[in-house]
UniProtKB/TrEMBL annotation:
The chain crosses the membrane at residues 30-48. Keywords: Membrane, Signal, Transmembrane, Transmembrane helix. It comes from the Eukaryota. Residues 1-20 form the signal peptide. This is Uncharacterized protein. It comes from Monopterus albus (Swamp eel).
Length: 67
């Protein structure tokens, strides 16, 4: 294992777990997870549409100029 992995394992083992974990914390965790996944998917969709548009323009340009 590399030194960075060992450092993070030691660092995370020193953090004490939360003592009071109630329904509000669970809902906040669930909401944060959902928002993160939706945001990640939105970024992937935006990137894919951007790449597709670039490919389509390249194909149309090649069709006009005869690559």
């Amino acid at each position: 294992m590399n030194p960075i992995t060992i450092f993070w394992l030691i660092f995370l083992s020193l953090i004490s777990p939360a003592e009071a974990y109630d329904v509000g914390d669970g809902l906040a965790l669930l909401l944060g997870t959902v928002v993160t996944v939706v945001g990640f998917c939105a970024c992937l969709g935006w990137y894919a549409r951007k790449q597709r548009k670039m490919i389509v323009y390249h194909i149309l340009d090649c069709a006009k100029t005869g690559c």
